[in-house]
Amino acid sequence: MEHDHLTEFSGVIGRVVRETFSWKTLFSGVALGFILVVTTVVLAIAKAPNVGIFVGQIIMAAALARFAVNGLFGEWDGTLFSSAGGSWAQVGAVTGRYLFLTFAWLVPLYFLGLNTMSDPQMMMMGPAMGGRVAFALASYMMLSALSPPIILIAAVSATDFGDFLSVAHWRRLFAGRSSDLFMVYAAYAGALGMACLIAFPILMGAFAMAWQLALLLGAVAGAFLFGWMASLLGRLCGFFAFGDRGFAGGRSETPGLSSQPDARHDHHAPAPASPAAVPLSSMATPLDGEPTGGPPMLPDSADRVQNARKKFETDPDAAIASLEQVHEEYAPHPQILHALVLMCHQAERKEEAVTWAKAALPVCFNRGALPLAAEILKTMWKFREALDLSDDQKLKIATSFSNSGELAYAANVYALVIQADRNHARAIKGVMHVAETLAGEDGRAADAVKLYSYLAKSCPETPLMEYIQDGLAKARKTAAVAKAS
């Protein structure tokens, strides 16, 4: 064995099997079977049976992707139509990556003629081959039969097709996790095999009583096994990917914190930011000169803001007025609105600052200026309820804070989302990522313990609790070692 303790994945795999053994799996199997049957009949009527094979593969890939995405975001049960892990657009992206990898792996079989549309003579060519060639082909076909879980894990973990060409992506997924990967196969094959063993004598007994009863029970059992096959494999792969990829898209390098988060919604408000807090050089190029059908775009936003900041030092009202005039003459610009928020706040014009913040944030989100949106929330923290931010917007801001190393702010913004929804998987995973990062920094394990403890107390019903408890135990151990030294 590679480890002397349970991994995060091995600690939850039993629950994945247990939770998927439910009526929801039967419903998913019936729905998925109905979709496949209708599609097959329609294509058969259209005299395109070969197309039906590919369409069926796409439908099955989409079902696996749906369950894998949901597993990635911590859903234990749920049906085929659950959207706990994200929209169907996200599922479509995972499906595309899964099918791409599957085709890339299986394409040699098609060139050899070993596929479902081959002539029987081609399928019998194996015995005529030399021993070594036949052994190589048999090994390749065996690996092909074992490839779907690996391909699905890689597809649901990737952000784009380029990840498939990255050695780091594959190493991050599977390095040191051979035992976990074996458990995916063991749990999947063992659970389905045991279900078949249980169903067989029941069906035989029903057949002895009446073939109609056996047919009915067989249909129910078949639908359940069909749904369980997709649900169990998808979720096992999703949870496997979750245990590897971290809690918010991977670990980031972060500087030390100047303040410590207590992860509560009534945390002390962050200190107001300076009007010059965010440098403009990194933001000016992508935001200027973008075509729109409305007012003209501002070509020199950085210069306008810099001039206003200089003027603000001697005449705040005039500086604010100059930027307000720019806003009236040109299309809304994140930098102009951001500067107006900060200047109005520093000039003690709080109501105007709130008004400008509510106008600025949608523009920042639409234009991808997340660092500016993050600083606006930091500046207006005392007035955060008045900003009417959606959970999705809060998560984007929290991610921006996390990426820039402002972990205290990131944890508190994630906590705002958790306050409204104690089982919000993405927010919980965000706090877990912050805690994981803190646990890896010298002298910060105690802060990680606080965050994990907050999650354990505030989110007792989350399906991610076993991950939280595991992280808490590790953080406590690290903190104890640090304290002893």
Automatic annotation (TrEMBL):
The chain crosses the membrane at residues 26-46, 53-73, 93-112, 182-203, 209-230. Residues 252-302 are annotated as: Disordered. Residues 270-284 have a biased composition (Low complexity). Keywords: Membrane, Transmembrane, Transmembrane helix. It comes from the Bacteria. This is Tetratricopeptide repeat protein. It comes from Candidatus Polarisedimenticola svalbardensis.
